[in-house]
Write a structure and sequence with these properties.
It is a single chain. The protein is α+β, with helices and mostly antiparallel strands. It has two domains: 3-36; 52-135, Carboxypeptidase-like, regulatory domain (Immunoglobulin-like, Sandwich). It is 21% helix and 29% strand. Strands 2, 3, 5, 6 and 7 form a five-stranded antiparallel sheet that branches. Strands 1, 4, 8 and 9 form a four-stranded mixed sheet that branches. The relative contact order is 0.17.
């Protein structure tokens, strides 16, 4: 057998042994492919967040927070709607939302409605903060206008 044939045969045997060790989890020295763990499958511990939160503040056209505005959140997969009544400082919060589902939401107060916004499944933030604006005057101006009528 010529030296070239011996070299090729030796290389094939070495590769076959390394492949066998990698496939069946036998640690090799030094570790080959995947650190000698015997698999190249993704590790299960490295998943993204299992839930996420949507928070924000409902504002008037004058940037004043609107207390008691109703925020509607629509799950675009199941078409279910959740509501949240904004606090005295205009804040709202929806917890335990699925990161794999798109949501649409808007706010409403005194018959006035904001534009509809979307929280996409491609938005990977575990806590998304999105403010909403309703085109109504701030509450102090609203009461002045009511007195003038």
């Amino acid at each position: 057998m010529a030296w070239r044939e011996k070299l090729v045969l030796g290389g094939l045997l070495l590769s076959a042994g390394a492949l066998y060790a990698w496939q069946y989890g036998q640690p090799s020295s030094p570790p080959l492919f995947g650190g000698g763990k015997g698999t190249t499958a993704p590790e299960r511990n490295k998943k993204g967040p299992q839930s996420r939160t949507l928070t924000g503040t409902v504002f008037s056209q004058d940037d004043a927070p609107l207390a008691h505005a109703v925020v509607y959140l629509k799950n675009l997969k199941t078409l279910t709607i959740k509501t949240y009544i904004a606090g005295p400082d205009g804040t709202y919060q929806f917890n335990a939302l699925s990161p794999n589902i798109d949501y649409e939401f808007y706010a409403e107060l005194d018959g006035k409605k904001s534009s509809t916004k979307t929280l996409s499944s491609f938005d990977s933030r575990p806590k998304a903060t999105i403010n909403i604006r309703i085109d109504i005057p701030k509450p102090a101006e609203q009461s002045k206008q009511a007195e003038q009528k």
